[in-house]
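Q: My labmate handed me this sequence with no annotations at all. I'd like to see what the chain might look like in three dimensions before we decide whether it's worth expressing. Could you predict it?
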Amino acid sequence: MPFKHFLFKRWGIALPLWSLICPLIGVVLIMLAATQDSGWFAVLMGISLITIVLAAVHHAEVVAHKVGEPFGTLILALAITIIEVSLIVSIMLSESMNESTLARDTVFAAIMLILTGIIGFSLLVGGYKYKEQAYIKQGVSAAMATLTAIAVLTLVLPNYTVTTPGPVYSNSQLIFIAIVSLVLYGGFVAVQTGLHRDYFLPENPAEGEEAHAAPPSTATTILSLLALLLALGVVVLMSKKLSPTIEHIVLDLGAPKSLVGIIIAAVILLPEGTAAIRNAYRNRLQTSLNLALGSALASIGLTIPAVAIVCYIAGFRVTMGIDGKSTLLLLLSLFTLNISFGAGRTNILQGIVQLVILATYLFITIVP
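A: Here is what I predict for the chain of 368 residues:
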């Protein structure tokens, strides 16, 4: 794709201008949001948010192409999760809550949207276009085993501890679980990037047009990485600005307030979700699964320790355990995915199953 703008002519930066301009427009809109509260401005921010998500996906793919797998998908997962942690912690501190369910609700929503939504759509799109898609069983199995353990320890086990009444960990238990989460996530990253990196490489690396393209230059990669971080930050800030508007719409419709958390989590996950689905469409299912499962692991493995530190220092009481129906849906999602990823190849039916669970999760949230 030829570039004719001044950045390419002067510095050889091969990036479309729209991918650099859209995040900057988002920054301007965020600065204007303090003085604007009209409906049309909210619509304008919503449209801008979509363009910024597309820009973030583009920059993520540029960086991933430069560093190769699985480091490219790891960078995107870590970037989004760090920003997600910052958003959760900032809201917790600003609201000065004595007891918070925000971390639990956000993490659970993110996990369910990843397991049933992102993976479901990826399997559906890939299965419809290619009938069957291959992946490396060892890598997916390692990710699923780690994810199952960390999800149950952080979201289910608190319902059965007795040191503190309710679905709450005591301070010592919370610190222990935070350490365990870091150990599990750190172990997974070590396996993914070093000890068994070949488990996470694309099954057919020669497939796809991008595999034959030369990697981007260092200048292009650095600018793309900076633009990616800016875009992700703007996505989170815009989500925070739009959340009151979304909350009013949800409440006006008579839906539970918990739906707001799902909507915000969905917006934050849009860059990763779009990138994962696009990779599945290009018959790069391994890269798609690296993105999705790596994001779910990072979401728990980094969020829970950060929240634990904040709660310990600030004296907050954080509710971690999810309720019975949420536990059932989480275990059902993990169980069906473990079965689906046992054969080494996927088909469209497995995507349909996950999307049905997603629809059930959303419906039960609205109509509990």
